[in-house]
Each structure stands twice: as structure tokens, then as C-alpha cells.
User: Fold this.
Amino acid sequence: MAKMQALNCRECGKEYPTEALHVCELCFGPLEVKYNYTEIKQAISRASIEAGPRSLWRYSALLPIEGTPTVGIHAGFTPLVRANNLGAFLGLDELYIKNDCVNHPTLSFKDRVVAVALTRARELGYETAACASTGNLANSVAAHAAQAGMQCYVFIPGDLETAKVLGNLIYRPKVIEVEGTYDDVNRLCSEIAAERRWAFVNVNIRPYYAEGSKTLAFETVEQLGWQAPDHVVVPMASGSLLTKIWKGLNELHTVGLIGPVSTKVNGAQAEGCSPIATAFKQGRDFFKPVKPNTIAKSLAIGNPADGYYALKTAMESGGQMETVTDEEIVEGIKLLAQTEGIFTETAGGVTIGVLQKLVKQGIIKKEDVTVAYITGNGLKTQEAVVDSVGRPIRIPPSLVKFEQMFG
Amino acid sequence: MSKLRFHIRFPEEKIPEPIIYQIGHEYNVVTSIRRADIRETTGWMDVEFSGETQEIERAIEGLRQKGVLVDPIELNVVE
Assistant:
């Protein structure tokens, strides 16, 4: 029997073949990959994983592909940095940063999900990759499609900053600027995904795409010496990443690689776009969509597809959710850079800001093994910090002057 | 004939109104509710609209004019 048993509706449980489907035809609930864990358990071991490639594909037994990976061969297996300086600053004995700032090839965690999505898409016979994105996802899809020799369509809102458009154009996909509001772009892309035989990674390929996020959990556990952390702090956009880290941790237990999981999964959002965290704090099991207004553009999803499931996950794991202001995001970026030498984009500032709050609130304690997920590189959002990092000290080309100033 | 799927959200003041019934009368579309959660202060439905594409688009615009929020079934796909 294959390791992928079916696609399974997360609401009614109806099963579907493992094709390019994402919505249950019966109840319109989202579909998720269902695995044959009994078979996987027999085939997987710590040793077999440790002998695998230094990429996310060392966990291919728990990923939704049938053959060998063909796209994104080098994605994943990013450093888990023991953050002694930041830990000391916050009062934590054992803090780690999972640093996806250095993911290959486009410096964000999206390289994980896109590697899995496009490998699966090619298995399903797709020759064209597509996505709708304002940033990291578009970069990653365009880069991977270029490497894989696939046609590529990237849909973006018409008012996107030049630098972000350039980051896509360099890979030579067809970049399509859609006139109208964000909602118009969203609706059009959903309709195009239904009409064309394209691998729209976060629409019709979403059940496979989302599974790539589990590798952040797998790597964390392995890099901690096959131990699940006490707390994780995860940025939330669609909410998918948080749910998949929880799924990944529990899968490792299911296949016998670790004991029962008691990790508390904490979610982080920017105050200017916090539909999930706000619902959590108000004790609601549903979220109210919002119009985003934050510098954390990569988390600015006002009507998140996995918001409901993220709420459930935080509650089930005993985690919390918190928000930070734009000012706190910038402070978080600077704090991580100045203590650990890691320059993160705004989403990372959200994670660090929320980590700091959870420690102050006593939710994360001194002795807790804690992992903060840093999902993107600061070089991509330099505009967020350009006014708050000071200027170079200008001196004439004179040793005397230098000694006067710094001697 | 097209079939399109939408996620529809009702603000609190619209909860008592029979909006889906009205849309079926005002436009030449058939509505099929697959999942819903209607509470005192908020509500949503996952609905399939069947009909000519242009008529479905008119019905969706009609829903928006009634103050109802309409999104693709996938919610936000721009990431």
C-alpha cells in the first residue's frame, strides 16, 4: 500500500484520490493528506533519517510524494541556532532560533512548501506552476519553476512596490498585475485556478503544499537531539504553518520516533492584521476577517484559510496567541539582529516581539526549551527598518581624525 | 451552465434576513448550502451557485449590495 492513502476532508472525513483536489465536493471543507502511518512506521527510523540528504527530503517518508524529489532539492535543513544572547536578554535558559532566513534558494520558509508542492505537481503531470502572492511565495514559485523548467504565472496586485516585482521578474515568469482591490485579485485567482490546468500551489495543490511546513517541526526535533520543545512561537498568516508544525510533531510520535508530544504551540500576529489572535484572546472559536494594516506584509492575510484550524491547534496544545504593534515589530527585528546576528524580515519581528511578551507574561518560563520560528530574510523588507537603524559615522580620510573620534 | 462555490459571511444585522431565499427569487440561480454556522451575532455559509456565469456574477453583486461579504471558497489565496 502507498504511504499516501487518500485526501481526506478535514470536516466530514470523506476521502478522495491523491490528485490535484483541495475542496470536498460534499461539504466544501478543505482536504488534507492522509497517510498510512503503519507502513511508514516500519520504513522509518532515526538512523534512516540521519543518513538522508541535508535537506527537507530526509523526511520524504512523511511527505506527500510518490517518487524521488525533483524540485527544490536543497530546500530546508536550516540551522537551529542556540540563542544564548537573546535568551539571556529575555531570561530564558534554552532558547533556539529556527533560521529559515537562509533557506534555499529564496531565503524564506516558502522554499519548503513550494519544493513539496512542485515536486508533487510534476508527479501529477503539471507543466505550469502558478501562485497569487505579494512577496515570498511568488519569489519561491518563480525560482523553483525556473530550475524545474516549468512555465510560471505569478499574479500580483497592481500597486506592489517595484523591488518586490523585480524579485519575481528576475526568474522570468509571466508576472501579471491585476487591477482592482486585493479582494478582486483574490477572486480572480480563485477563478483562474478552477479554469486552467495549472499547478496553483496554494489553491489546487494546497493539500500537498501545506505539508511542506511539517519539515520545520521534523528538523527542530532532530536538531534538538530527537526531543520536542516545550514551547514554539510561530508567526501566523493563513494559519497553516502553525497547524502543520503541530501535525509534524505528532506524526513523529505516531511513527515511534519520539514520545508523546506536550509542546505548547503559540501563535504570533501583527496587531494590524490579527484575526486569529484576536479571536483566541476573546475566547471565540471563529475569527472575523479584517482589512490588513501593518508593516508585516508577509503576514497580512485578513481572511485566513486555516484560521479556524490554527485556533483549534493552539487550544489543543495549550498554547497562547499574542500580537505586537508595528513599533514592536521593528524592535523585534533589531533585537534579534543585535543579539544573534540574524537579520529577519518583518514576520520575524512579529515572532520575536510575541516571544518577548509571552516571557514577560510568565507563559514561557526560564527553564522551558523554546523555539522561535524565523521565516524570512530581512534583506527583503529593508524599508521596515531604514528609519530606525541610524546612519554611518562619517569621517575624513585621516588617521588623526579617526583616533580623535575612536581612540 | 456553471457551478461556483463561495464563502458568505453575514454581519450581525443581516442574520435575521432570508437573504439566500431572496437571491434565489431575484436571480436565475440555484443555491445549494453545504455547510453553515449561524449564530446570534455572526454567521457564515459555504454555498454553491448554479446557473449562467453572468447570472451568478449578478447574484454575487446582489449579495454584496445587501451587505453580505462574499469570498472564494478558499478564502484568501494571495499569500
The mean pLDDT of chain B is 94. The domain at 2-72 of chain B is CATH 3.30.70.260 (Alpha-Beta Plaits).
